[in-house]
Amino acid sequence: MTHAIETKLTELGLTLPDAPAPAANYVPYTRSGRTLYVSGQISQRPDGLVTGKLGDTMSAEEGAEAAKLCALSLLAQVKAACDGDLSRLTRCLKLTGFVNSTPDFTDQPKVINGASDLLGEVLGAAGPHARSAVSAASLPMGVAVEIEGIFELEE
After folding, report:
1. How far, in Å, CA of 8 to CA of 80, rounded?
2. What sequence ranges are listed for the domain Endoribonuclease L-PSP/chorismate mutase-like (predicted)?
3. What's this model's pTM, rounded to 2 decimal places?
4. pLDDT tens digits, 72-85
5. Which of 43, 84, 120, 145 is 20 to 30 Å from 96 by CA-CA measure?
6. Residue 45 and residue 68: Cα distance in Å, rounded?
7. CB atoms within 10 A of CB 154
8. Distance between CA 67 and CA 114 in Å, rounded?
9. What residue ranges define each of the domains in the chain, with the CATH number in brackets?
10. Beta carbons of 65 and 114 less than 8 angstroms apart
11. CB under 8 Å to 132, separation ≥6 — which residues?
């Protein structure tokens, strides 16, 4: 599956970032049996954080782009947890997305679709997942989006 995932990323013109280091007192992921829990990944590009508040300084479309960046960081963490072998990833089980948004912004699902759509496109049949998309009054360092994930791995 590594070949398929890496090939699809290349076809889409995407590359995985280095797995981001934790910004506080936590680990980037934990594993229990076949289940991998990946800590929340914030919206960031190589040149810095993607900050803003949906419904104020950012549109839902811009938020969806930020969510895609979170999905790439999630995959980078999965790759790190699998010692670089993405073929061990068998399925995305669940995403929980947090959107830095105004009280009247109600398009959180459209924002988190950026991550869900990307994972579906990259992982194919292993991509569909359960999901929550919720508003947050603020997020760490003012980022627009944070997403955590639960994945299934081979034994």
Report:
1. 19
2. 6-141
3. 0.96
4. 999 999 999 999 99
5. 84
6. 10
7. 11
8. 5
9. 2-153 (3.30.1330.40)
10. yes
11. 94, 95, 96, 97
What is the residue-level pLDDT of the chain in tens, covering all 155 positions?
Answer: 447 898 999 999 999 999 989 989 999 999 999 999 999 999 999 999 999 999 999 999 999 999 999 999 999 999 999 999 999 999 999 999 999 999 999 999 999 999 999 999 999 999 999 999 999 999 999 999 999 999 999 98
Please name the residue that has the structure tokens 């190589």.
46
What are the structure tokens assigned to 44, written together?
């960031």
* The two three-digit tokens of residue 113, written as one number: 């679709």
CA 75 – CA 81 distance, rounded (Å): 10
